[in-house]
Amino acid sequence: MFKKIQNRPIRILLNTIVILAALPVTYWLFIYLLTPRYQFLESKPFYGKYLYNPYQNMDSSHWKAYNFQCQNMRIDKKNSKQEGYIPVYEHGYRFFRKTRQLCIGAENVQWMDFPFGQSLDMKQHTLNILQQHGRFAVPASYQSGYKISNMHYLGGYRLLEVGSAHSTSFEHWDAALSTGHRVYGIGNGSFFTMINTEGVVADSVYTALDRGCAYTVEGTSDEPCLLTRCELVGDTLSVETSAPLIQKAEFIGQEGKVLKQMDQCQQAWYVIQPSDTYVRVKLTIDETTCLYLNPITRHSTAEPVDPPTAEINWPLTIIFYVVYVLTIILCIRRVARKKSSSS
User: Fold this and answer.
1) Which long-range contacts (CB under 8 A, 24 or more apart) does 149-152 make?
2) What average pLDDT does the structure give for the chain?
3) CA end-to-end span of the chain, whole Å?
4) C or N: which end of the chain has fewer Cβ atoms within 10 Å?
């Protein structure tokens, strides 16, 4: 390469630049090509005679405010010696179309990513990898990454960032819930998360998040409005807060439809119908504060069991691998023939 250039130092420099540029290109090429193909199993709305209420046994004196704001591709460990430290970082490179995830309880930073756009297979694969190396892999910041239609298929995650300084994703949340994915909301930035945990030990926080005993708040965390009651008696859901008055209470169900609205009330309630697959509650406390509660969901067992949603399609994956290998071999042979003919 660059044989016609007589100046040897310049020729060496140009060759070095080309090699250095080829290394990341080769790396990203292999990352993209080696992604497994997934089979997304048929998803359907929640069903069954049992209603799961994540707040049923909560203690209203145990609410604690959390904000999982974090740095891109870096775990901040300056408070790692403190009780209740939770390692978290933002995953995703800032190239072109960034698809972002929050990694909560991460063991270490995972550098694998697809910065030049992602297919549904790539998004599922990324969530799987991140989930294996941490406690929660959280799809986040939806303006350039996750599409609403993606949420009908993607699985293997428990939490969804439903509000941040960058965007909100309530349509994404309802899309996931409407297809039977039991996911719970968290908030960051101008939103924050209230978690019902007696202690601040990380495992206790993770347990509360996993079973949904938390809610997202839009507003200030200086004096947060507390959820004091979210009780299911039979099929009647009753909700109360520490605020003297709830300006508006909305009970939201399948496909994001508002099932019932109550205005200017101290207690809000809704009788869950047999046709309701899930019910989540939005409480507008005043002009600056809203509470977004996690959903009540239907199941065929008393304790919810999450069915698998995606698995690797190995026959299809192997076929693609074989095609890639054959293509690379043919390209190498073609280049070798050109070199031999030119010499």
Assistant:
1) 149/175, 150/120, 150/123, 151/175, 151/176, 151/179, 151/181, 152/43, 152/176, 152/178, 152/179
2) 92
3) 14
4) C
The amino acid at 3: K
Tell whether the model's pLDDT for residue 151 goes beyond 90.
yes
What is the per-residue pLDDT for 130? 97
Amino acid present at 101: Q
Q: Residue 343: pLDDT above 70? A: no
User: Residues with Cβ < 8 Å from 239, sequence gap 6 or more?
Assistant: 227, 229, 230, 249, 267, 268, 269, 281, 283, 293
Q: Domains of the chain: which residue ranges?
A: 50-299
pTM (two decimals):
0.92
What sign results for the dihedral spanned by CA atoms 272, 276, 277, 281?
A: negative
CA-based nearest residue to 62, from 173, 205, 191, 158: 205
Mean pLDDT confidence for 266-273: 98
Yes or no: say if 270 and 251 are a contact pair by the CB < 8 Å rule: yes
